[in-house]
Write a structure and sequence with these properties.
The protein is of the alpha+beta class and 439 residues long. Among the domains are: 136 residues, no CATH class; 97 residues, SH3 type barrels, CATH 2.30.30.60. It is 60% helix and 11% strand. It has a 5-stranded antiparallel sheet. Strands 6-8-7 form a 3-stranded antiparallel sheet, covered by helices on one side. The protein starts with a helix and ends with a helix. Keywords: Membrane, Transmembrane, Transmembrane helix. This is Mechanosensitive ion channel family protein. Its main location: membrane.
């Protein structure tokens, strides 16, 4: 059969030589015709096998429940596999077509071998991408940096492929090439420095569970504030709250400091920590009339009654001088408001009652005394969290005047002008005022 094929391929050359045409020209024309025939056959086989394989894969994936074969189709695995049959045609026909031209035969053999290497790498890449996409859809791998490992394996595949291609072109052994490559390892390390650092960082990020896909991180150095959408070999991709994207070098997650909000996301509540600045000169002891007034406030009525009884017993026991409020123990409007704010938080349906909750004084400042509200909201989603925080402080700010307290607010330009005009009007004598009137 092999001899029959060879005879068939040389049919045209023998025919032309029989007609008196020069042998070299006849064999050259015979080669061109053979190339054309092989190309047509290659194209037809490629077209038929690709269509048959794609149709067969599509029918197979429609019948199976697993999604792995669906990802095979999406990664072009059937298309790459369909090239194997035309490739077999080339392997068989190339030695026959270029039998009389050894140099051309050598060149085409190298091209066929390079084609085999590239096709092998592409098939491996397709399988790798299929496996990656299939794993990413499973919950247990959802937050793992699979892309990083995939990219490393792809670099390995392509590196091996290029080594074999280079060996094929230069006709040097793979071992000899690797020895030469070892001598140039310093240059290779310099070229692939970021890749190597990214790979090591990816392993550390995964092993130490520093960042997962879906984590909310804040990285001020790079202006990142949002959810991690992708972790790969070189970068971590963050979708910010304004829907912009920030890419961070993976190794910087190891070398620099950033904030990961995963603990908050996994906890039962999100922290509210904000202060009200009270003017110090509005703080005072409360009188009996004030006590009677505050006892009508439902949230703190029980507290005031109990507290006042305790204070009265203490003062009577020590027989303090009641002429001045500084003697003995007395409640202050700030202390009562502080307990009112705490009672309000305890009654709020959106505040987590199982987590830390307090209303405390901080060190006095030039803006007044900070009264810090510290609690946790049940709702962790940003928009709802901000709404709950605003509701709490809306109420407390509106309640402050009922306790004869004032919030600090820096004076504006209009406030200063009004004060200056008021001083000028008071200091102006009646005679001067008459003189100031227009004639």
């Amino acid at each position: 059969m092999w001899e029959d094929i060879k005879n068939l391929s040389n049919f045209l050359a023998e025919y032309l030589i029989g007609k008196g045409l020069d042998g070299d020209i006849a064999r050259f024309l015979n080669m061109l015709v053979n190339i054309a025939v092989v190309f047509v056959l290659w194209y037809l086989i490629h077209l038929i096998t690709k269509r048959l394989l794609l149709t067969a894969f599509q029918k197979f994936t429609n019948k199976t429940k697993t999604t792995f074969d669906d990802y095979l189709v999406k990664s072009n695995f059937p298309r790459y596999v369909s090239n194997i049959f035309p490739l077999l045609l080339l392997i068989i026909t190339v030695p026959i077509v270029f039998e009389d031209y050894p140099k051309l035969l050598s060149v085409f053999k190298k091209l066929v071998n390079i084609y085999i290497i590239l096709l092998t790498v592409l098939i491996c890449r397709s399988l790798l991408r299929t496996t990656t996409n299939y794993m990413k859809r499973h919950e247990r791998y959802h937050d793992k940096p699979i892309e990083s490992y995939t990219q490393v394996l792809m670099i390995v595949f392509w590196s091996i492929g290029f080594i074999f291609i280079f060996s094929e072109i230069t006709e040097r052994s793979v071992l000899g090439f690797l020895i030469s490559l070892g001598a140039a390892s310093a240059i290779i390390l310099l070229i692939f420095k970021d890749t190597i650092m990214g790979f090591v960082a990816s392993i550390q990020v995964s092993v130490n569970d520093i960042v997962r896909i879906g984590d909310w991180i804040t990285f001020s150095k790079y202006g990142a504030d949002g959810f991690v959408t992708e972790i790969n070999l070189a970068t971590v991709k963050v979708q910010n709250w304004d829907n912009t994207f920030t890419t961070i070098p993976t190794y910087n997650l190891i070398g620099d400091s950033f904030q990961n909000w995963r603990g908050m996301q996994e906890s039962p509540g999100r922290r509210i920590k904000r202060s009200l600045y009270i003017k110090q000169n509005s703080i005072r002891y409360v009188t009996a009339e004030d006590i009677a007034k505050f006892e009508e406030f439902d949230l703190i009525s029980p507290y005031i009654k109990e507290r006042q009884q305790e204070i009265n017993l203490y003062n009577e026991k020590l027989q303090v001088n009641k002429k001045y409020l500084i003697n003995g123990r007395h409640q202050t409007n700030l202390g009562i408001f502080r307990n009112y704010a705490l009672s309000y938080l305890k009654s709020h349906s959106q505040v987590n009652q199982e987590m830390t909750m307090m209303v405390r004084h901080l060190a006095p400042t030039t803006q007044g005394i900070p009264l810090e509200i510290y609690c946790f909201s049940n709702e962790k989603r940003w928009e709802y969290y901000e709404g709950i925080t605003a509701d709490i402080f809306d109420h407390l700010i509106a309640a402050i005047p009922f306790f004869d307290l004032q919030l600090f607010e820096a004076p504006s330009g209009d406030d200063i002008l009004k004060a200056v005009k008021g001083i000028s009007t008071v200091s102006l004598s009646p005679e001067a005022a008459v003189m100031e009137k227009p004639q």
